[in-house]
UniProtKB/TrEMBL annotation:
One cellular-component annotation, GO: mitochondrial small ribosomal subunit
UniProt-listed GO biological process terms: translation
Coiled-coil annotated residue ranges, if any: none
Keywords: Ribonucleoprotein, Ribosomal protein
Protein name listed in UniProt: Ribosomal protein S18
This protein's record includes keyword Membrane: no
MF term (GO), any: structural constituent of ribosome
InterPro entries associated with the record: Ribosomal_bS18, Ribosomal_bS18_sf
SUPFAM superfamilies noted in UniProt: Ribosomal protein S18 (SSF46911)
Domain of life: Eukaryota
Family, as annotated: Belongs to the bacterial ribosomal protein bS18 family.
Pfam families in alphabetical order: Ribosomal_S18
Species assigned in the record: Theileria orientalis
Length: 357
């Protein structure tokens, strides 16, 4: 029984205090301000801050800057180097001169608006002690702000509309130009020919496919089957959205198409080849020994353009790196020597026949 009695007393006291506090809050709010206008009038009746300036700074964020300087000073005093942060007497003199110049400028500018200059001097002298600038007014209402913003907005809208008109005009001119060109008789003939060739090319039998030289070099792949390492070749068989092109566009045999499909699949699983786009130029480096790749490129250059510099580099690489596969280069040089020897023998035989005759 006593425990229950205590609990009941505690609950009653809690209810009493809660209801009392809520009522007091409501009554105070309702008694003081019944509308927003009353609250605004009450704030205006209090001491106005329009003629008071607490900080010595002359900028819009003066209070913030003064607060930060005080924090820096306190930190400097705590770190025992407060002498470095104090203002020197030279700087204080310069600030005084600056204030005097500003006050003189204000006197000269606003002398026409003021009826009596003595009132102004009295204001300046009265504010010297408290470091208050009488012309600093952060709460002053800006006159004609709405008109200014509206005029700026109208100017901006005119500029945007003129730009849009220019864009539309350029688009119309471009479309008209294309329309006129499309109805030109000669151009129509050329377009019809090109379209017919494309259609014939697409629907030709694979026995009559005739790829160009670059395509043939790509399909040869240095006389090796396609693998996931040939990233510098596989990008030619993929569209811009990452889809593998069909045989009629790749001009490949069935065996080559299967090799390409498998190699791209393995390269994608190994995160070497993208799924949804064509690989960029920096992602087309083949996955093989760089020395072997350099050797093959030099040999191709030597074979195509007979570059002696690339031949010298090949000879150095053969002597320095015996692991490099130089079979194709040696075979090419052997065939070249056989041709030269056969030509020399033919020339000798011709000379012998001429001498006998």
């Amino acid at each position: 029984m006593p425990f229950r009695y205590k609990l009941n007393n505690i609950l009653c006291h809690c209810r009493f205090f809660s209801t009392k506090s809520k009522k007091s809050l409501k009554t105070t709010r309702n008694e003081k301000f019944k509308s927003f206008d009353e609250l605004f009038n009450y704030s205006n009746s209090q001491k106005s801050l329009q003629t008071e300036k607490v900080s010595k700074e002359n900028s819009f964020d003066a209070l913030y800057q003064e607060c930060m300087t005080e924090i820096y000073k306190m930190r400097a005093e705590a770190d025992c180097y407060s002498d470095e942060t104090r203002e020197s007497p030279e700087i204080q003199e310069l600030t005084k001169k600056e204030n005097e110049i500003v006050n003189s400028v204000f006197k000269r500018v606003f002398s026409s608006n003021l009826t009596n200059l003595n009132d102004m001097n009295n204001k300046l002298n009265s504010n010297k002690s408290s470091d208050i600038d009488p012309y600093w007014d952060p709460f002053k209402n800006i006159q004609n702000l709405k008109l200014q913003i509206a005029s700026e907005f109208n100017q901006l809208s005119k500029l945007v509309s003129s730009v849009e008109l220019y864009k539309y005009k350029s688009m119309i001119k471009k479309s008209l130009r294309q329309f006129n060109e499309s109805y030109n008789f000669d151009i129509m003939k050329d377009t019809q020919k090109n379209s017919e060739d494309d259609i014939d090319y697409k629907y030709k039998n694979e026995r009559f496919w005739d790829p160009d030289i670059d395509k043939r070099l790509i399909l040869e792949n240095n006389k090796r089957p396609f693998s996931f390492r040939d990233l510098h070749v596989l990008h030619n068989f993929v569209s811009e959205d990452g889809q593998i092109l069909p045989r009629r566009l790749n001009l490949t045999t069935r065996k080559q198409q299967i090799q390409i499909f498998k190699s791209i699949k393995i390269a994608r699983q190994m995160a070497l080849f993208p799924y949804d786009w064509k690989p960029l130029y920096r992602d087309r480096i083949p996955l093989l020994n760089p020395l072997q790749y350099l050797f093959d490129e030099l040999f191709y250059k030597y074979k195509k353009s007979k570059d002696l510099r690339s031949k010298a580099m090949i000879n150095v690489m053969i002597n320095k790196y015996p692991d490099v596969n130089a079979h194709r280069y040696l075979k090419y040089e052997l065939q070249k020597m056989k041709r030269t020897t056969s030509k020399d023998s033919e020339v000798k035989d011709g000379n012998i026949v001429e001498s006998n005759s």
